[in-house]
Amino acid sequence: MALDRNLLFYFVRDALAPYSENFRIIDRQNPVQMTLNDAHYSAHVSYVHDSGNARDNDDEVRIQLGRGIIEEQRARQARGDRVAFIGFFDTGDTFVAWDPRHVFSLQARTVVSVYARQSQRVSVSTQQAAVHQFMARQLGEQSFAIALPASALGFYLENVEHFHALRSEHAIVNLVGRHTETFADAGLGASGEIEVDEAGEREKFTFERTAYPRDPRFKKWVLEAYGQTCCVCDRQLAIVQAAHIIPHSVEGSPNHVTNGLALCIEHHRLYDDALLLPGPGYRLVFNTDRAEYLRQTNQDKGIGEIRNLHERPFAVPTDPARRPRNDYLQRGLDIRMGA
Ligand SMILES: [Zn+2]
Prior knowledge:
Elements: H1 9-16, E1 23-27, E2 32-36, E3 39-47, E4 49-50, E5 60-66, H2 67-78, E6 82-88, E7 94-98, H3 100-105, E8 111-117, H4 119-127, E9 130-136, E10 141-149, H5 153-158, H6 160-163, H7 169-186, E11 191-198, E12 201-208, H8 216-225, E13 240-244, E14 260-264, H9 265-272, E15 276-279, E16 283-286, H10 288-296, H11 304-307, H12 326-338
Residues 230, 232-233, 235, 263-264, 266-267 line the site of zinc ion.
């Protein structure tokens, strides 16, 4: 089952949130506007689908781009945004990216198509990257539709131009493999460069997986205020953490107990995933939008008990001076539900 178009930004969010804490979706409508490591991105996101050209090539898939989207992307690029044209395969685990230069070179009054191959998805599952090479006539050069795992989206976005400068699938497969290793070894907070030097090609790639430093006092203050107890489920069990209400990644998010909540690992994760959120008035908010995304992507087993918590009160410290501020709860809700 394919996801509703208006929920497609969740593919982007779920790919980028683990990549860097310095990430925010600004506008979830297509093209999705976001910041990643302080750079502005505008990504057109849609599904790849059969091109309807089965007679000639039943492996062919494509995305279609309206003239309006292309012009909007061109304008955003002129303003300094980095732009990308992304097509996800239906489960969201693999995407194809086209060179923006190629898209901008296409001439069409209404809708244009850019193409890839269904079989690229299979290749990504075995070798992490796969290209479909074609002649970009208006550019007068060969161009690549590059298929990558969703986990490489951040790395791709940070290096769009360099990715499309590479001229061999082998170089891209190697590059993404090296990045994945670094990703697995170093985790959040790692940054660096990966240089590709292959068959006369030299390109430098960067990755920046920002992790903001934590103030250890914040954790102490919050856990003390709540008696080391999850404010949603009343459990202790040494699985309780301190969470920021206005996300830690938002500039100016206070390291004050009134911007904190004590949450068990499970409820912390559901908060970060914006499924169940402590909201203003000390009531829980169940995010039906996120639930719909999980349902449509077959990830919603067990959601019933979480849905039942909607509007239920959550616990706050007895000391009024240490309770969460309502304006923080509202702002945190807006930021987290918006993305
Ligand atoms: Zn809990």
